[in-house]
Amino acid sequence: MIFDAHFHLKQLLEVSPESADFIKENDFFGFCSCRKAEEVEFVENFIAENPGTAEKLKITFGIHPQAPEEKDLHTLERLISENRIAAVGEIGLDRFNEEFAQTFELQKKLFAAQLEIARCAKLPVILHIRKAIPEIFEQIQELKKIEKVIFHSYSGTAAEAESILDHGVNAFFSFGNALLNGHKKALEVVKTLPENRILTETDAPYQPKKGESFSKPQNILEIMEKIREIKTRQTDLSGDLWSPAPLPQGSLDFVSIKFEQARQASTEAGEVSRSDGGVIIDIMEDKHNGLKENVE
Q1: CA distance linking residue 31 with residue 54, whole number of Å
Q2: Peptide bond before 51: cis, by omega within 30 degrees of 0?
């Protein structure tokens, strides 16, 4: 399975129309991140016009920290009440530059509000955090109440990621072309984190590979291979046989779909199925709990 934890379908197809064929023709699953209601409608229309894509694409919506608008809280609540989104995000905090820093207090207010909305709705959150890891620890008790927390394009350190997990947050850390571009911090985090806490993403069409003008879902194949390379090298250095640790049952049951392979695994073994060295994650139904559902 080609798993893209975070990309922007509308913006992607504006610069790479052929990516639609890649999504339709491959064993692909991805979270389509939306900032505005019209983007949600765009993805819904794409799904309606392309049979079979409803099982490949799930919509997420959140108030992006780079464009904090309090009125968008009403849009978020409406989309949840209409059962139109699978997760809340991307949301978070960003003070990468002076422009974003000027809205930081509003960002914090909206971040806290959206965490509470996600908690009440029992939805996962997808986080955009840039130069704001200390503030994440200020919200650690609230994050512990969220069923699943995905750090999109994680830019913190390995120690910070481990501390987030040690605090009891059910966190997953997503990586994309930063690995292919040689980001030392991202490479170190992937080396250090347990494999079952790592997700792959493109943030397409943003965050391209060096020398390219935009990213695309096809990059996931290279990102997967890079993670395998890192983990294999780690095995060679330690002398231990590296094998992916199994996911706890239901650990990634936050999407309201299941794939045939996962259904079969659930029936035969009652466990989450993993493939491709564990880097690609098969989503399944938790038999006990039912179906549930960084940087540009």
Answers
A1: 11
A2: no
C-alpha to C-alpha distance for 43 and 31, rounded to whole angstroms: 11
What are the pLDDT digits (tens) for 61-120?
999 999 999 999 999 999 999 999 999 999 999 999 999 999 999 999 999 999 999 999
Cα dist from 13 to 20, 211, 230, whole Å: 7, 20, 31
pTM (predicted TM-score): 0.82
Q: List the domains of the chain with CATH numbers.
A: 2-281 (3.20.20.140)
DSSP of the chain? -EEEEEE-HHHHHHH-TTHHHHHHHSSEEEEEEESSHHHHHHHHHHHHHSTTGGGTEEEEE---TTS--TTHHHHHHHHHHTT--SEEEEEEEE-SSHHHHTTHHHHHHHHHHHHHHHHHHT--EEEEEES-HHHHHHTHHHHTTSS-EEETT--S-HHHHHHHHHTT--EEEEE-HHHHTT-HHHHHHHHHS-GGGEEE---TTSSPPTT-SS--TTHHHHHHHHHHHHHHHHHHHHTSPP-PPPPPTTTT--SS---HHHHHHHHHHSS--EEGGGTEE----BTTTB------
CA 104 to chain CA centroid, nearest Å: 23
**Angle at which helices 158-166 and 184-192 cross, to 10°:** 40
Say how many C-beta atoms besides its own lie within 10 A of residue 189's C-beta: 26
pLDDT in tens, 5-61: 999 999 999 999 999 999 999 999 999 999 999 999 999 999 999 999 999 999 999
Separation of alpha carbons 170 and 149, rounded Å: 6
Q: How many other C-beta atoms lie within 10 A of the C-beta of residue 212?
A: 12
- Nearest CA to 291 out of 259, 248, 268 is that of 259
Q: Encode pLDDT of 205-236 as tens digits.
A: 999 999 999 999 999 999 999 999 999 876 55
**Structure tokens, 55:** 């099982």
